[in-house]
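Supplementary material to the annual report.
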Amino acid sequence: MLTLTVSLYHYLILSAILFGIGLFGVLAKRNAIAVLICIELMLNAININLLAFNKYMTPGDFIGQIFAIFVITVAAAEVGVGLAIIIAIYRNKLSVNLDDFDWLKW
Amino acid sequence: MIMGFLNSISYVAAAFHTLAAVVVISALLVVFVRNIVHSVLWLAVCFVSLAGVFLTLNADFIAAVQVMVYAGAVCIMVVFGIMLIRRRDMGETNLFNGQTVAAAGVTALVIMLSGFLSFKVGSVTSPAPVPADTVGNIATLLLSKYVIPFEVAALLLLVALVGAVFLAKEVKADADSDS
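Predicted assembly:
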């Protein structure tokens, strides 16, 4: 009979799939905001990993949960600064297409 | 038969599989939808169901923070950013660039590698449950052992706030002639 179980492997596989989706978006999207969104997906995949290891390996220490809080903090700061940079670039270039951002190319 | 099936599944496992399916499908829609506003809305769905996944991991405080910070603040901030730089037609705003095949190859490689490594790592699992009082334990640790990273995170948020305001501020066209 089919039994539904959940273990550390399930969380690691879910995290790997979510990280892969985010990585594909970062590599293959053309819109700078879409790339920012996909970075958020990757950071959330890392949060799943941290919390899963916290539950299944060191349940009493709460190290994983504290690291997840720091990851969320840094991600929020990163989104704010990233959006500000995209808006500043859009004001100069009138585009959010990443292929147009080639000032540093010689 | 059906009662035996219902007794054999644990509700946490059923909740995890449902939420994992929602997470993966909405993350795929975030990447593959062609309208960037719809993409951000699917991102909110993904974040809320990820909060459910965090609840199955006994991390209720992180789940609450996830709903507030990600589904609340980050999604709304991204929508505001799109509003500030929008075009008239939002139809084809979230397209792929020319390196889709290479990106798919790299992604498949990363997923297979991390899947293989995760099957190698996880045989040592602690049977002890997570203590029920998560918020109290996190608070004690954050203000005693991890107080310096806590303060550095506060400083980082302040710097990010000032930096975002400075970067997004309107620059005058004749700013050079004034100085």
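The mean pLDDT of chain B is 84.
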